[in-house]
Specification:
heterodimer, A: alpha/beta, 7-stranded mixed β-sheet, 24 helices, elongated, B: alpha/beta, Rossmann fold, 2 domains, 8-stranded mixed β-sheet, 4-stranded antiparallel β-sheet, about 20% strand, globular, transport (chain A)
Chain lengths: ~675, ~350
């Protein structure tokens, strides 16, 4: 069924590839490493190529009276043993390594890139032929071959570096093939081909631009390596002969005076080292490897703050519901120094019941569920409210206290069973590890318990499954294993984040039946996150409908789904194409204009007002807390009027969708990592 | 339960907009691949002009492979694909673009189906340029195309990242329709969208179809969604057609056990009704998915089917007309009502 994760927005980043063209500086030039790399490389290249025009002395001009001089007004960088000006020699020597490395790059990419594009396009057989051929190149001993070539053609560095380029093209091909193949998986390539775009144009217009970053990173890194190789060859004497200057020979020369005139090493060594470092810094900046350090520490520092917030919240709240095993009150989750993702969420869960958090993507249901486990993403934390688990406050607990709870008292199953299991280990070792840790039993006892757990989640041939690895299991089987994994610590609360979204509908029905049986047999309490109202109707006793970070309606599943009171709930139900038994399919479905506003741009007053058909002037101003509606809550000031008038969220009329252009699209501000 | 409606064969006199005959697709090559069951096994159906046919199945049923074979993205092993009677089975994509301009596609994933580095305008103008419309005229058409799917025309200057999932899917639809095609393959166009956005896009597709008389091959995993948009439906399981017929008959009175399993498993958002459905489904005794491999000679649903007998293992049932739908089941008459 290959359904995409619907909670992409909840999971923070949404955009796989950033738009290539933006106004102003390219991103890599906004990083210090990138600025340094680009500036230095530009300087060295320009200075070297123009050296004959500006150099103060001829490179072979000797001033023996001034040999081995330190920097002075006459010789800015000093002189060598024959009194030749180092500044002039360094930059006169620069054009050879720079140009020959560039030539190596041109050759390497000139061969590797087209081969990678062809192999990615033409399918397996062509790819295998090309890959085998490049393996031959990789297998050749490069150093020996280079020396042999020099033996034949002499110290001519341009042809030597061109041959090195041919040999490097194999590894360039390797890296670029992977990238090209993954770019070709993208659907816009297929769309372009269906449009009839020719192979060359598909590659030029659609494939290559998406590979540009990798190409640039590779090129910058290889350029640095090329410089080192040229210098190394010259150091060994395979460079331009005296009196022609070369970086490698100058370093070799300086190494003889390392004790008597140590300065001699500094200018040449520094220019070479800086150039190589600059190439690598530029590569790093293009690749976007910004120092991520410093972010990790942030969560810790919020600990005391969170504790204070929680204490304040607990102090002002009314007495906790004694029957509830989990009570969440006024919970807020925010991006650190950024917008709120969830505000004022309250719900209670009785033991042995199933609560559904339902809503569209970006409404904060996953964030709410994850905060119960203390598993919020980096840079996101609970910013207020309280989570009472069996009377114990979870907000503000340290990571250590939280991890003692996780698995033993509160466990989680996630949307993608295949991602939750480690592909490297057998099911047996993935299950027995936690069993031994949680229950303190021996290896054979743990294996017995593992088999028992698998049988409990409806796996008939438990022994065979224990021996297999995750990739040998179907999606439904893998999700059963994940549920068994969650049960290893005998938890009392299970948080299930879209547990069936990635599964086929017949498999989904089996997993839901299994979860229900577990609740019935073990008295487990469950919080289910789902976007599917059908799943909620199937498994949940209580429902909290979330919209834009708030609970807009809550109550028992029957009350909320059979008689929705909030317009958003009405609209969601109207949008569902599964009509009741025996009723005809409507001509058009009910829909909600526009999209969920992203965090940070929630309107004041009712957050749904701008999309609501029943909204009035007073909906757009902040309103006081609303009284309970029946046994649950409804976050709508018009709820009594609407239920008195039997308001219905009507389906669209035929033709509505093409008659009225929507408002200009609002920029989608995804929360940045 | 409604009676099966509209059982008359659709448009027998006119040439079908799209016709697929005995389509077989095998992946890979070599002896191993020849021994494995094909991804698509002798599938035939046709779509009349202006008609929508829903292709329903779970993962691995081959529904997207059929879409790819129709579009020329996956060469079929045997069988034919005809567009307005013209055989396009082995035509290259380039030949197709020259000769048949009226087959287009909308993919499932609105994020990867638009090139993030190109403006909406560039994306929409690309197919027009290939058909000889260039310059201001192409741009004008692109703007008109965006307006026809409910987006402002000035969106041509923006990049895909500035749009939400539903808006991107509208753009993908605009790209498919900008050349005025007559047949559009919709490959799970709403599966990646949220419920309210899904409804918007489904309404839009229905509006466009009614307005332009488009023929849709609508690929989906959800029979409820297919029922909303389609007139007829084809139910696939492991590359074979299990049942086909008018969508009301297939979804309300299925004659194949797999269709019954598929329909019964889809949850409805009404707790009491869902409870009854669940009880009925659990009582029906369908086997667990993926528990055992089906036999190569018989019906692929045998390992999960509560009605399976000896004949189902040895003999593949042909499609036959049973009470208004065509079902490939030896025991179609015994299939219990939903």
């Amino acid at each position: 069924m290959s359904v995409l994760p619907l909670d992409a927005a909840d999971e923070v980043a949404t955009e796989p590839v950033p738009p290539a063209r933006r106004r102003g500086l390219p991103a890599f030039l906004r990083r210090p490493g990138g600025i340094f790399g680009a500036t230095w490389l530009t300087f060295v290249i320009v200075a070297s190529l123009t050296a004959p025009l500006w150099r103060p002395y001829e490179p072979a001009e000797q001033d023996t009276a001034n040999a081995l001089a330190l920097p002075s007004a006459e010789h800015w960088l000093g002189t060598d043993p024959l009194g030749r000006d180092l500044l002039s020699r360094i930059f006169t020597a620069g054009s050879l390594p720079l140009l020959s490395s560039a030539l190596m790059l041109v050759v390497a990419f000139g061969i590797g890139l087209p081969l990678a594009l062809i192999a990615a396009e033409r399918g397996r057989r062509v790819e295998q032929v090309i890959s085998r051929l490049t393996e031959v190149l990789i297998a050749l001993p490069a150093t020996i071959l280079l020396l042999a070539v020099i033996g034949v053609i002499g110290n001519r560095l341009y042809p030597v570096m061109a041959i090195l380029g041919v040999m490097i093209s194999a590894s360039v091909y390797r890296v670029l093939l992977g990238v090209a193949q993954s770019v070709r998986q993208r659907l816009y390539i297929d769309a372009a081909r269906v449009n009839g775009l020719g192979s060359l144009r598909v590659n030029l217009v659609h494939v290559l631009p998406s590979m540009a970053t990798v190409v640039a990173v590779q090129a910058a890194q290889l350029f640095g390596i090329g410089l080192l190789i040229v210098a190394g060859l010259a150091f060994l004497g395979f460079g331009p002969g005296e009196p022609e200057p070369s970086w490698g020979f100058m370093i070799q020369d300086a190494s003889g005076y390392i004790y008597t005139a140590p300065w001699l090493m500094v200018p040449t060594g520094l220019v070479l080292a800086l150039t190589v470092v600059a190439a690598n810094e530029l590569a790093d900046a293009i690749a976007g490897k910004v120092a991520v350090a410093g972010r990790a520490g942030r969560r810790r520092r919020r600990g005391p703050l969170r504790r204070a917030v929680a204490a304040a919240a607990a102090g002002t709240a009314e007495a906790p519901d004694p029957a509830a095993v989990l009570q969440v009150r006024d919970l807020s989750v925010s991006v650190d120094d950024g917008p709120d993702l969830v505000t004022g969420v309250s719900f209670a869960l009785q033991p042995g019941r199933v609560l559904g958090l339902v809503g569209e993507s970006g409404c904060g249901k996953t964030m709410t569920a994850r905060s119960l486990l203390g598993l919020l993403p980096d840079g996101v934390s609970v910013s207020g409210g309280s989570i009472l688990w069996r009377g114990r406050e979870l907000v503000g607990l340290s990571e250590r206290e939280m991890s003692a709870l996780r698995g033993r008292e509160i466990a989680m199953i996630s949307q993608e069973p295949m991602v939750a299991l480690d592909p490297m280990f057998s099911i047996s070792s993935q299950l027995t590890g936690p069993i031994r840790r949680f229950r303190g039993v021996g290896r054979s006892e743990a294996r017995k318990i593992a088999a028992e757990l698998l049988r409990n989640v409806g796996i008939v041939d438990a022994e065979r499954v224990l021996k297999s690895h995750p990739h040998q299991l179907s999606g439904g089987m893998a999700q059963r294993v994940c549920i068994a994994l969650a049960l290893t610590g005998e938890p009392d609360l299970l948080v299930a984040d879209e547990p069936t979204t990635a599964l086929d509908v017949t498999v989904q029905a089996e997993i839901l039946s299994l979860l229900r049986a577990l609740v019935r047999d073990t008295g487990l309490s469950v919080v289910v996150v789902s976007h599917d109202l059908g799943v909620v109707a199937d498994i949940c006793d209580d429902v909290a409908v979330m919209y834009a970070g708030q609970v807009v309606e809550s109550g028992t599943a029957e009350a909320v789904l059979d008689a929705p009171a909030h317009p958003y709930t009405m609209a969601l139900l109207g949008a569902n194409p599964h009509v009741p038994e025996g009723e005809p399919v409507p001509e058009r479905l009910a829909s909600i204009a526009g999209t969920v506003p992203p965090p940070g741009s929630w309107p004041t007053g009712c957050r749904f007002a701008s999309r609501c058909r029943f909204a009035q002037e007073r909906c757009t101003v902040p309103f006081p807390e609303l009284p309970a509606h029946g046994a649950g809550s409804v976050l709508c000031i018009r709820v009594d009027e609407l239920s008195r008038d039997h308001a219905v969220w009507e389906p669209e009329h035929a033709g509505d969708e093409i008659a009225t252009p929507l408002a200009p699209p609002a920029p989608v501000a995804g929360v940045s990592r | 339960m409604t009676a099966p409606a509209g059982t008359a064969p659709v448009a027998a006199t006119t040439t079908p907009a799209l016709e697929i005959r005995d389509l077989v697709v095998r992946y890979g090559s070599g002896r191993k691949a020849r021994q494995a069951p094909p991804a698509i096994d002798r599938v035939s159906f046709s779509i009349a002009p202006g008609e929508t046919v829903g292709l329903v199945g779970e993962s691995g049923s081959g529904k997207s492979t059929i879409g790819k074979a129709v579009l020329g993205l996956q060469p079929p092993t045997s069988g034919t694909v005809r567009l307005h009677g013209q055989d396009i089975t082995s035509m290259s994509l380039k030949q197709r673009s020259r000769q048949v301009a009226d087959l287009r596609v909308v993919f499932q994933d609105p994020y990867s189906s638009l090139n993030p580095a190109r403006t909406i305008g560039q994306t929409l103008v690309e197919p027009l340029r290939l058909m000889g419309t260039r310059g201001p005229e192409a741009l004008h058409k692109a703007r008109a195309g965006l307006e026809s799917v409910g987006l402002p025309g000035d969106a041509v200057d923006r990049y895909p990242s500035q749009f939400s999932g539903g808006q991107r899917q509208r753009i993908a639809i605009a790209r498919a329709l900008v050349c005025d095609p007559e047949v559009v393959v919709l490959d799970e166009p709403v599966s990646a969208l949220d419920l309210s956005t899904q409804a918007q896009v489904l309404n839009l597709l229905a509006d466009l179809r009614d307005q332009r008389g488009l023929a849709f091959l609508f690929i989906a995993h959800d029979l409820g969604v297919v029922r909303f948009l389609s007139q007829r439906t084809v139910v696939l399981y492991r590359g074979q057609v299990m049942e086909t017929g008018p969508v009301e008959a297939v979804s309300q009175a299925p004659r194949h056990p797999y269709t019954v399993a598929l329909t019964a498993a889809a949850p409805v958002p009404r707790p009491a009704e869902q409870r009854a459905r669940r009880t009925a489904r659990e009582a029906a005794g369908f086997g667990t998915a993926g528990a055992a491999l089906p036999s190569a000679t018989g019906c692929p649903f045998v390992p999960r089917c509560p009605l399976a007998t000896e004949v189902c293992v040895t003999e593949r049932p042909p499609l036959r007309l049973v009470e208004g739908t065509e079902a490939a089941c030896h025991h179609a008459e015994r299939v219990p009502a939903l």
